[in-house]
Amino acid sequence: MAKIVAVTGNEAVAHALKQINPDVCAAYPITPATELMQRFSAFVSNGQVKTELILVESEHSAMSACVGAAAAGGRVATATSSQGLALMWEILFIASGLRLPIVMPVVNRSLSAPLNIHCDHADAMGARDSGWIQLWSENAQEAYDNTIQAFRIAENMDIRLPAIICYDGFIIGHSIGCIEYLDDETVSNFVGEYQPLYPLLDIKKPISYGPLILPDYYMEYKKAQDEAASKVANVVLGVAREFEKISGRSYGLFETYRLDDADIGLVILNSAAGTSKDVVDEFRDKGIKAGLFKPRLFRPFPYEQVGESLKHLKAICVLDRADAFGGSYGPLFLEIATSLYPFSDKPVLINKIYGLGGRDYLPEHAQLALDELIDITKTQKVRTVKEYIGVRE
Fold first, then answer.
1. Over 90: is that where the pLDDT of 211 sits?
2. Which of 43, 54, 173, 232 could form a cystine bridge with 26, CB 3.0-4.6 A?
3. For residue 161, what are the contacts with CB-CB under 8 A and spacing of at least 6?
4. CA-CA distance, 174 to 164, in Å (whole number)?
5. Is the pTM higher than 0.85?
6. How far, in Å, CA of 108 to CA of 111, rounded?
7. CA nearest 100: which of 131, 128, 126?
8. What angle do the packed helices 232-247 and 184-191 form, to 10 degrees?
9. pLDDT per residue over 62-105, tens digit each?
């Protein structure tokens, strides 16, 4: 039986991990992900899971322990945020390169300097090209659901890649919301028994992990990793269809909101999408055909499907909660622009940087972006492509 509860996002994701009952979890506390692992460690202490919880001295060590446990043949999970994810950077590439399906919730937080413990997306964007799958979540329900689905996606025998589940620090992680838990047996059956692939502990079939590969075979190895990534989108959709059968909740590679007949649209990730949907409704009430596009699968990015969904619009504002310093525009903007590049007739694109370091994203910011898009469609002129919004004068 499903159960309606009022919980924080961190509590919801910890509950999902309890229901999945991984073999090993190695973790190091960091705000705002600390509550997630603190709650999961209570499940371990109370004997509610059989997970071997490894307490380590850093996030670098946490991911290193996860790599060892996954290579040995275990179902493995961890969690982190911000500087913790950055400290794992070296090992992230090892986990994906060795095709180890580790699952890691990332409670999004800004990167230093200066020190800031609040939400933006710089941490996950910094890891976007590390070979990990990335699923993004608008609210606690999506974070819970994405965590359950991530194990099935990562562990698919055609994929075998690690996965990150992103949700906004404090805004989702520490805010209490009303969500629906699936029952333990349903989740356990959905995820299934873990099937290791080439485990180190299979002494009847000895193998080695991470051997030296020189120029003669390194490119072939990386091409195989790329081919696995190319299959992720279809697996995500297949897992989502099965998840809908047990939950009644539908997921895709992205969500569109009032977009089919829209002339102008916002593209935005995670919690700010909820605020933006309300503003889209207000503009619709005024007779303005506005819509919203919210990516879910950010890595590997589904360029073709995204482009097809957005190509009919006249103008789009991509809102980034991170900046790609030296890259001129925000990281999400660059992906949306790339997805639309093949089309000769495509929307005008502008980029807004918002909400860095936890700065509030307000309805007026969505209104500002939509008003500018209206002006662009009327005048065919762009005042500026990239702009920081919500900045003090």
1. no
2. 54
3. 96, 99, 101, 131, 132, 133, 154, 225, 228, 229, 232
4. 19
5. yes
6. 10
7. 131
8. 150
9. 999 999 999 999 999 999 999 999 999 999 999 999 999 999 99
Where are the extended beta strands (E) located within the chain?
3-8, 24-27, 52-55, 76-77, 103-108, 133-136, 163-168, 176-181, 254-257, 264-267, 290-295, 297-299, 315-320, 348-353, 386-388
296-350, pLDDT tens digit by residue?
999 999 999 999 999 999 999 999 999 999 888 999 999 999 999 999 999 999 9
**Is the pLDDT confidence value at 1 over 80?**
no
Closest CA to 247 of 155, 104, 134, 147: 147
Q: What proportion of the chain, given as a percentage, has pLDDT over 70?
A: 100
pLDDT digits (tens, 9 = 90+) for 112-138: 999 999 999 999 999 999 999 999 999
Instruction: Say which residues have a Cβ less than 8 Å from residue 378's Cβ, sequence separation at least 6.
Output: none
The CA-to-CA distance between both ends of the chain, in Å, stands at 53
Token pair listed for 160 = 């075998």
Collapsed DSSP state (helix, strand, coil) of residue 54: strand
Q: Quick one: CA dihedral 3, 9, 11, 13, positive or negative?
A: positive
- In the beta sheet, which residues pair with residue 168? 108
* Contact in structure between 315 and 351 (CB atoms under 8 Å): no
Residues 6+ apart with CB under 8 A from 320: 121, 329, 330, 331, 332, 333, 351, 352, 353, 354
Tell me which amino acid residue 188 is. S
In 3D space, the residue among 59, 55, 172 whose CA is nearest the CA of residue 107 turns out to be 172
**Bond prior to 27 in cis (omega within 30° of 0):** no
